[in-house]
Amino acid sequence: MRLPTENRVRFILALALLFAPFAAARAEGPAAPDIRDNFHKGAKHIGATVGYGHGFRFGSDRDKQLSAILGEVRSATLIPRFGYGFTDPIGGDSFLRGNVDMLFELAFLFDAEPHFGFGGGGGTSLRYNFLFSRFAVPYVEANLGVLGIDFDLGRQADGFAFNVGAGAGSHWRIGERTTLTTEIRWQHISNANTKSPNDGINAMQFMVGIYRFF
Hints:
Porin, elongated
């Protein structure tokens, strides 16, 4: 099956994001400052991530057709974050060696298509950082939060909603205590059937941010 051009581009971007840290680990020099010094119990960081969200639908053909408008969502996201090192490195000397961070975040969403709208709220993320490289620290994370939305989408009620998701990304060292962060995240917004309709907004988020560790 041949993917549409737009989906192929997104797939290639996702692969590049996920595998670039492994290539960086092989190419880095031993004299470089070690980014891993910033990832331990009690370490703190603050920063913000901005992103682009591209809606999609999944499920049966009937469900996709019924809620097609939700797949047309195109949004911008701003997420200020504060992170705290929850554990020291675990996993011994294995390739899976890493630590756990807890993040507290605000979320601001600006929907550009199919209608102009906005949303705002807050939540938390639990993140596992892989500490095998001096230059780049890839991670996986899960997110849970709440939002108030006003998107006027017809198949998803405005008002209170949950904001859940999961993603993968990497911190890239650009200073001794500063990182450029790239991330891909699946985002799901719905209200657990507290109000109808509730078909759910699903989007892939492509995100980039700057973080300062202290």
